[in-house]
Amino acid sequence: MTQTKKPVLCLTFDNMGEAHNVFLGKSSLPDLSAPAITIGFPNILRLLTAYDLRATFFVEGWSALHYGEVIEALLQGSHEIALHGWVHEVFAELPERTARQYVNDSLQVMKLRGVRPAGFRAPGGRIGPHGYQILGEAGFAFDSSVGTAMPPEIPLDVADYFGDGLRRLPHGLIGLPWQWFMIDAVHYLLAPNGLRDPEDLAAFWGKVLRNVARAKGLVTIISHAHITGVDPDRLSTLEEVLKLALELGFDILPCGQAMGRSEHLR
């Protein structure tokens, strides 16, 4: 039977708890009362449940160790858990031995939580020179990282963007790409020309979705519990974007399912 090609929105969320602050030397302990934990993740999970959607949550190994209740909530919601480094280190800059240690230690913690991650996204976005070999040898199926750092200014003219394609990577991996302009943190916090107003971001992402829908392409959204999940206006923007994607005929999928869409493989 011929498979009908449909546009795909790969829905993903990055980071959990204090991991990045541990890497920066600003913290050493988990904060179980942090808004991202007590408000952000519950808000996101309620939103996904309301639309019967599943997503991929990229979680640091340290976070999986310290935030077991959140991990359990993700598993109960049938969401995919993938790996996001150990303490949200700059993965691309790690010596090979350290990178191997962080990946191995993270996998051991995940195993204790009943999780075997199939996918990886490098903290900081870039995979680095040793990443593919380490991931392949560790048995990962896919990587959702990039090769370049965030540009000084992100592109806001998306008239010629019609989505990304899955890629064959070294060591048997499949690559699930993404764009810097599809990340909530880049717009709200990081890029000098980012769209700070949630309504503006909703309109911008809406343009992207319409382009990708016409081409029946694949696009990835990256959001964060501590950025979108804790803010009612930003959360409403994410809901508006997801509703539009459904209206446009997108299959909204976690990474593991999107990876199986061979019609999007380039």
Structural description of this entry:
Helices cover 42% and strands 12% of the residues. With 266 residues, the chain is α/β, with parallel strands linked by helices. The protein has a single domain (8-264), classed as Alpha-Beta Barrel (TIM Barrel). The two termini are 21 Å apart. The mean pLDDT is 96.
Properties at a glance:
single chain; 266 residues; alpha/beta; TIM Barrel; 5-stranded parallel beta sheet; 4-stranded mixed beta sheet; 11 helices; 42% helix; globular
Question: What coarse outline follows from CA principal-axis ratios?
Answer: globular
In angstroms, what separates the terminal alpha carbons? Answer: 21 Å
Largest sheet: 5 strands, parallel
- Portion in helices: 40-55%
Instruction: Identify the CATH homologous superfamily.
Output: Glycoside hydrolase/deacetylase
Rg computed from alpha carbons, rounded to a whole number of angstroms: 17 Å
Strand content: 5-15%
Number of helices: 11
Report the average pLDDT across residues. Answer: 96
CATH topology: TIM Barrel
Under CATH at level 1, the class stands as: Alpha Beta
Contiguous uncertain segments of 5+ residues: none
Give the SSE string. EHHEHHEHEHEEEHHEHHEH
Number of domains: 1
CATH architecture: Alpha-Beta Barrel
User: How many strands in all?
Assistant: 9
Determine the structural class based on helices, strands and strand pairing.
alpha/beta
